[in-house]
Task: structure prediction
Amino acid sequence: MPATDGIPQSPLQIAIVGMGNVGTGVAKILIEQADRIAHRAGRPVVVKHAIVKDETKSRDIVLPPGVLSSDLSRVLNDPTVTVAVETIGGLHPAKETVLALLKAGKDVVTANKALLCEYGHELFGTARELGRTIAFEAAVAGGIPIIAAVGQSMAANQIIGIQAILNGTSNYILTEMQLYGRSYAAALKQAQDLGYAEADPSLDVNGTDAAQKLSILVQLAFGTKLAVADFPVVGIDAVDQTDIRCAEELGYTIKLLASAKLTGKHIELSVRPTLVKKDRPLSQIPGPFNAILLEGDMVGPVWYSGRGAGQLPTASAVTADIIDIAVGRAQLTFSRLDLWREKPAFTNLGLDDYTSRYFLRLKVEDKPRVMADITGILGKHGISLASVIQPETPEVDSAAANVPVVPLIIMTHRTTAGQLAAANRDFDKLPAIHHPRVCLAVAD
Result:
């Protein structure tokens, strides 16, 4: 067919499976920005099918007649549809749907980080056997093009370190606690009211969401599959205003930091609340934004920041994958991605051998020898102290029955997780140390 303005008239026909927030956003971009997308894809991109559970549900988009359906077989049996977008979310039936789409000859675009973490090996293997492509830019950090950065732009490098804020909900909560003195509960409620947090925010605040994203980045950067259960994952729900204030007085901000680094032939990775120096760019990322610091052996540190969630930022990344498939970039990249090696070049460091500096906040009885006992335990396990801070308290009658309990803040030099765990076991035996005890990592 003849071309208009240099754009061939044979369209790329796609299907969207799942018309929730992200799926609707993808349809909006493709329909409302059709000319822009056609110019960049080299041909029109048309939504031929939109598959949903409930066709009667009200949606924030008007689709052409005949597009909406609850019958997936319409996509599977339509040879004119060569690209399918999976925006169902979750593990099942998303896994079965993606496998069916691949076997029906469709390339797949997905934003489903949980699916790739759990079944990426099987899905990628199936796609390669069938000569198909899976594109997944939106699975990590929403609208930030971090998958392309790791898989393409930094291909000349061995990435040696990743530090990232990968969960906007947790970052919003911590920002509200720091800037406005809100309690964790109040900040979470506000995040829910604004739509940053789900009614059940567990996967965001317990670190799982960030850990799934980090796992995908680690597979791209290091060619090594590590499940979320293979590395330390700690959420923000135990962080309170005392920790926020103490960190600030010491010149730090607390962030939920996803971190991975090479140590020889081993990878050391974690997701946990971490003290970050105030003058570091990561400490200044506000509210629901994400940020990623990649360090390559050739290029050094490279920064990426932007909105890591939301309908249009995530849909933007999905649409970019559709365009990459239309012009053939995604197929070339997918065939060369360093994913799920049978014999990985790097392996996970033993958890006891992970190293970090630490911030310890203890509640201790203000009486003689307690400090000596604590420093003795730390010294016994080879943990060196960088600083110790205890607020001055009023002098009390040593014969009084009620001994005041005061906070004790300890900053350690670099030590191993195994040494710290051993010290904590000895702390359990000291009745003068009260619960809860807080232990937070300190970023390099």
